[in-house]
Structure formats: structure tokens, C-alpha cells
Amino acid sequence: MARTENGKVALITGGGQGIGQAIAERLYADGFKVAVADLNIENARKVADALGGKQRGALAIQVDVADRDSVFAAVNHAASELGGFDVMINNAGIAPASPIEEITQESIDQLFSINFNGVVWGTQAAAAAFRALGHGGKIISAASQAGHIGNPGIALYSASKFAVRGFSQTAARDLAKDGITVNTYAPGIVRTPLVEDLVKKAASAAGKPEAWAWEQFANGIALDRLSEPSEVAAVVSFLAGADSNYITGQSILVDGGIVFN
């Protein structure tokens, strides 16, 4: 089916690879103009160019989500270059291991500056843009199944995702009067470059083949397999579209059956 523009613009942070890339590709297919925002501008350009580039409604933008000014500049640039702004996807994040005994002030600052602060700056920038344009909008942020139930070995990551959920619930209440909905999507274990690297490291540390490590990562998932990025993007597509207009303050799990509410 040929793509039909829907007249709306979405920005995706961390859009240069993995889940963010899949979201950019899905929203573009849905008819959005997309701003592919990433710290790695070369990755962002590859994704945007593959979608047809700026002339076809796919713009690459460099952004550092830990820097408030950078996030505001990215949103304003997207709105100016693509002719509007309707959906903010706060997807960028990192997920290093953080054994309790090894947590430092520096590791807290680094992880929260990206995973949590980036969501705060993205929410502020999007809300300001929606108000300036005189309409509501949608803010959709990356939580995690690890933000619904604490996961061993990744205390800081889990904490940051719980924080994203809490912040988003309050933002949903505070911004509802402006016609802005705020939701999160909560992936489980997704087959991305980040996870592939973790699998290789786990296999090497255990002296086992990679196939063994993949099995360990799938252990405990009801559907007995990892998610593909496109499956997470499908949930974001729903949250970005009109069918979710009456949903706000929610965290939608897309984890294959790890956490049950």
C-alpha cells in the first residue's frame, strides 16, 4: 500500500538505530513526516536518507538528550523544517549493568541525565511547541518492563524507568488541559544492537556459544522469544495515532509476557 501523508510531524530521539529506527520507519509508513534525532548524526542521516530525505519528509537532526538546550533546539528545528509538530517520542536511552556495590555518583548522573532528564526536556520542549502552534499533541516516552518490576543487575536502569513512568503520569494530569496526552511504552528484551552486544558478552563470560546466551535472555518470556523492534514500533504507532486519543497516563507493556498487571 502506498504511503499517504497524514499532515503530522513526529520527532524520535535515539532514532538512528534499534527501536528508535523502527519507530521512525513505522511512523513514516503511517504517513508522518519524521525528524530522526540522534547523538550520532551519521546514523540519523542513514535512516532519514533511506526514507527519502528531507524532500520526502524525513529529516536528520543531531541531539544530545542530556542537554536541555539541545532538545529544545531539535524540536524547534523539526517544527520549522517539516512544517509543524504533533508527536514527541522520547526514545533515547542507555542500559549499562549496575551492580549495587558498583554504583557511583558519576554512574547515577550519567544514566539519569539521559534516561530521565532527556524525557523531562523532551516533554517540556514538546509541550512548548504544541502551545506555540495552538494545538494539543502526543508525548510518548520509553519506559521498560524493568520500570514495572525491578530487574537484577540493572538497578539504575530500572530506577530511571520507574522515574519515567512516575513523571509521565504526573505530566499526563498537568498537560491534559492543553489537549496533550502523555504515555509510555514498556519493551521487554528486544533484538537490537545493544542487546546483541550484551548477548555476546554474556556468552563470552560464561564460555558458552551465542545460541546459549540467546536462550538465557529468552528465559521467562511467556512467548519464548525476544521481541523484534518492529513489534515495539507497532505499539508506538497506536499511541501516536488517533485510536489512542482517549488514553493518557498509561504504560503499555510490550514484553512478550514478562510482567502481568
Automatic annotation (TrEMBL):
Fetch the Pfam families from UniProt. Answer: adh_short (PF00106)
- An example molecular function term from Gene Ontology annotations: diacetyl reductase ((S)-acetoin forming) (NAD+) activity
Task: Name the keywords, alphabetized.
Answer: NAD, Oxidoreductase
SUPFAM superfamilies according to UniProt = NAD(P)-binding Rossmann-fold domains (SSF51735)
Report the catalytic activity: (S)-acetoin + NAD(+) = diacetyl + NADH + H(+)
- Where, by residue number, is the active site? Y157
Biological process (GO), any one = acetoin catabolic process
Q: What is its EC number?
A: 1.1.1.304
Q: Which PANTHER family match?
A: 3-OXOACYL-[ACYL-CARRIER-PROTEIN] REDUCTASE, SHORT-CHAIN DEHYDROGENASES/REDUCTASES FAMILY MEMBER
Q: Which family does it belong to?
A: Belongs to the short-chain dehydrogenases/reductases (SDR) family.
NCBIfam families hit by this protein: 23BDH, PRK07231.1, PRK08643.1
UniProt protein name: Diacetyl reductase [(S)-acetoin forming]
What is the species of this protein? Agrilutibacter terrestris
